[in-house]
Design goal:
This protein is mainly alpha-helical. It is built from 7 helices and no strands. The chain is flat and about 65 Å long.
């Protein structure tokens, strides 16, 4: 039973699982985690076949939660059952969390300074400017497609930006209204 998608479970110790996932958690960021886990779990160690890993990654993407955490649960479970899953997730998350807490503790006095607050206000202003830029581009793109898309954009801006209503219900209502209006009026309304 040594096929591409299904291999017999190898004897992998919880220490080996912890070492791999701790190293991955401490030394990688963002979307690269899945690629690195693929290299380590499939190519380097042969713990899973390529097909099984890709199936596990797909499953991890459709389940709620972080893709790499879901993948860690799967790999850990496949190697050592429930204890393997627990070890993989804890080893993936705990070391970087400890490092962040230590860094934040070391810099807590510095972070409370006026210069840091001014810097963060500048970053926030830049983020608002970038968001406004995207909004203006969306508004410009509505030329030639009718007035309703522009009405929806302005309504969302007023509801969220001026009235400070919650974004999720506003987006649901605006999205529904946009779909209904586009079906009713067509693109030339």
């Amino acid at each position: 039973m040594n096929t591409e998608t299904s291999r017999p479970v190898q004897h992998v110790s919880c220490v080996d699982i912890a070492a791999l996932f701790a190293r991955v958690g401490l030394t990688s960021f963002g979307g690269g985690l899945s690629a690195w886990l693929y290299r380590e779990v499939v190519t380097q160690r042969g713990w899973l076949g390529e097909g099984e890993f890709l199936s596990a990654m797909t499953l991890g993407q459709i389940l709620p939660g972080s893709n790499v955490v879901n993948l860690s649960v799967y790999v850990g479970f496949r190697m050592r059952g429930l204890p393997g899953s627990i070890v993989a997730v804890v080893a993936l998350l705990a070391p970087p969390m400890i490092v962040i807490v230590l860094i934040m503790s070391a810099f807590s006095a510095w972070i409370e300074g006026a210069a840091v607050h001014a810097f963060l206000e500048g970053v926030a202003a830049a983020a608002v400017g970038m968001t406004a830029s995207v909004g203006l581009r969306a508004a410009r793109a509505t030329k030639g497609v009718g007035r309703w898309p522009l009405v929806v954009i302005v309504a969302v801006f007023v509801a969220v930006g001026v009235l400070r209503w919650s974004l999720v219900p506003v987006a649901v209502v605006a999205g529904t209204a946009g779909v209904l209006l586009s079906r009713r009026t067509g693109p030339d309304a």
